[in-house]
UniProtKB/TrEMBL annotation:
InterPro entries: AAA+_ATPase, ABC_transporter-like_ATP-bd, FeS-cluster_ATPase_SufC, P-loop_NTPase. Residues 2-246 form the ABC transporter domain. Belongs to the ABC transporter superfamily. Ycf16 family. It holds the Pfam family ABC_tran. The keyword ATP-binding applies. Gene3D superfamilies: P-loop containing nucleotide triphosphate hydrolases. The keyword Oxidoreductase does not apply. Keywords: ATP-binding, Nucleotide-binding. This is Fe-S cluster assembly ATP-binding protein. One of its GO terms (molecular function) is ATP binding. PROSITE patterns: ABC_TRANSPORTER_2 (PS50893).
Length: 250
């Protein structure tokens, strides 16, 4: 589903990614861990198509298609979803209206008619019940006045509504207490299937207690320096990152 091949990327003449190779297949959950400044969020941004990041070598392929010249909204229409570390507030636009617009724009991009209002309401009701979201929440302005946990839960609600093929969660656990973390993780687990793939970017092993990855990759200085299964995340929790930094420097 996603293939990253010898990916080098820079921002403002600073090289951040220095040769990433990674493959995600449908049905898999991958976690990327690493210290601050290692390139984790840059990798998420490059996959999603943020324009300030320039690919200097290699590429990102989604369902065998090179994404280099594909705009962020086109990537979203193709089924790539990015959950932000710091979701933005949009006053005056309700959660429901935002979702209606997003879904209908994606349908239009695929040559489909707008979703009928009764179907949209049914979908909103199903997904909000699945994620234990209060209906009053859906009439509020997008993220305005939301707590950290509410913002993150709203991101997972968006993911549930859009049903992406590839979901990238960029430090979704950042700033969450244990209850909010559990709610977010349960939502992700309910939405994972054999037809989609999930890429979880996190500092901490604690999220991976709830979203169990098939593969764990450690990013350091713009490269993947080690890959393994969930046991690697536990080892990092115990030992920190210094031992890997030393190994990769040899």
């Amino acid at each position: 589903m996603l293939k990253i091949k010898d990916l080098h990327a820079k921002v403002e003449d600073k090289e951040i990614l220095k040769g990433i190779n990674l493959e995600l297949k449908a049905g898999e959950v991958h976690a990327i861990m690493g210290p601050n400044g290692s390139g984790k969020s840059t990798l998420a941004s490059v996959i999603a198509g943020k324009e300030e990041f320039e690919i200097t070598k290699g590429g990102v392929f989604f369902e065998n298609e090179d994404l280099e010249d594909t705009a962020p909204e086109e990537r979203a229409h193709k089924g790539i979803f990015l959950s932000f570390q710091y979701p933005v507030e949009i006053p005056g636009v309700s959660v429901t209206n935002f979702m209606k617009t997003a879904i209908n724009e994606s349908r239009k991009a695929r040559g489909m008619e707008e979703m009928p209002a009764n179907e949209m309401l049914k979908l909103i009701r199903e997904k909000s019940e699945m994620l234990d979201i209060d209906r009053k929440f859906l009439s509020r302005s997008l993220n305005e006045g939301f707590s950290g946990g509410e913002k993150k839960r709203n991101e997972i609600f968006q993911m549930a509504m859009l049903e992406p093929k590839l979901a990238i969660l960029d430090e979704t656990d950042s700033g969450l207490d244990i209850d909010a973390l559990r709610i977010v993780a349960n939502g992700v687990n309910k939405l994972s299937s054999k037809d989609n793939a999930v890429l979880v970017i996190t500092h901490y092993q604690r999220l991976l207690e709830y979203i169990v990855p098939d593969f764990v990759h450690v990013l350091h200085d713009g490269k993947i320096v080690k890959s393994g299964d969930k046991a690697l995340a536990l080892e990092l929790e115990e030992k920190g990152y210094d031992w890997l930094k030393q190994e990769s420097a040899v």
